């Protein structure tokens, strides 16, 4: 059906437009979510730097920060775990593709899809185990020795990052299959 407006004729947009619009909305959401996690990771890294610097200076005066290892361990887990989805979104991980480059385009795409499916399986498994571990930590009320901080928020946060990573890998599969993978 064509709608006339004066001298201009406007045809309705095909159904494909809605799919592209949804994909674009998903891509925008995915990018914002991954960037938010990266921001948390970056701020945490900056805090680690300041914390370590303060600890080193305090040690020089004979007053080290008690519990510094447990704080740095928690923060290190946040820095690494929260940066993974954004790094994957940018395809910033190290890949060894000298063999893939010799394959035909369809075989290369098939290998890329297969590795991303394996990645999804791995991160789903990791996410499930982080949730399971978090629930065990809640039941046991396990806390750090010095500051008495609970462990479970960190493992729940890492589980969330694993799920976001799965969505990122799934989006990459959709792009590869759709021929829009770069």
Task: Give a written overview of the molecule.
It is a single chain. Strand 1 (3-5) and strand 2 (8-10) form a beta hairpin. The chain has four helices and two strands; from the N terminus they run E-E-H-H-H-H. With 182 residues, it is mainly alpha-helical. Strands 1-2 form a two-stranded antiparallel ribbon. Helices cover 71% and strands 3% of the residues.
Give the secondary structure arrangement, pairings included.
Layout (H helix, E strand, L loop, with lengths): L2 E3 L2 E3 L4 H46 L7 H22 L15 H36 L11 H26 L5
Antiparallel strand pairs: 1-2
Helix pairs in contact: 1-2, 1-4, 2-4, 3-4
What is the alpha-carbon Rg in Å? 23 Å
Domain tally: 1
Shape label: elongated
User: Helix- and strand-based class?
Assistant: mainly alpha
Helix percent reads over 70%
Low-confidence stretches: 15-19
Percentage of β-strand residues: under 5%
The first-to-last residue Cα distance is: 37 Å
The number of E-state strands comes to 2
What is the residue-averaged pLDDT? 87
How can the largest sheet be summarized? 2 strands, antiparallel
Number of helices: 4
Strand order of the largest sheet: 1-2
């Amino acid at each position: 059906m064509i709608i006339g407006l004066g001298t201009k004729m406007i045809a309705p947009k095909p159904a494909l437009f809605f799919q592209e619009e949804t994909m674009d909305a998903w891509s925008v959401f995915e990018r914002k979510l991954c960037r938010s996690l990266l921001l948390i990771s970056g701020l945490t890294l900056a805090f680690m730097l300041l914390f370590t610097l303060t600890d080193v200076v305090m040690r020089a005066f004979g007053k080290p920060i008690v519990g510094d290892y447990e704080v740095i361990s928690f923060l290190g887990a946040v820095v690494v775990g929260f940066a993974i989805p954004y790094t994957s979104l940018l395809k910033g991980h190290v890949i060894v593709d000298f063999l893939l480059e010799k394959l035909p385009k369809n075989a290369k795409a098939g290998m890329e899809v297969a590795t991303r499916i394996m990645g999804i399986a791995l991160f789903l498994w990791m996410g499930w185990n982080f949730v399971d571990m978090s629930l065990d930590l809640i039941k046991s009320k396990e806390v750090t020795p010095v500051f008495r901080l609970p462990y479970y928020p960190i493992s729940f946060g890492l589980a969330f990052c694993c799920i976001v990573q799965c969505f990122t890998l799934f989006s990459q599969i959709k792009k590869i299959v759709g021929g829009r993978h770069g």
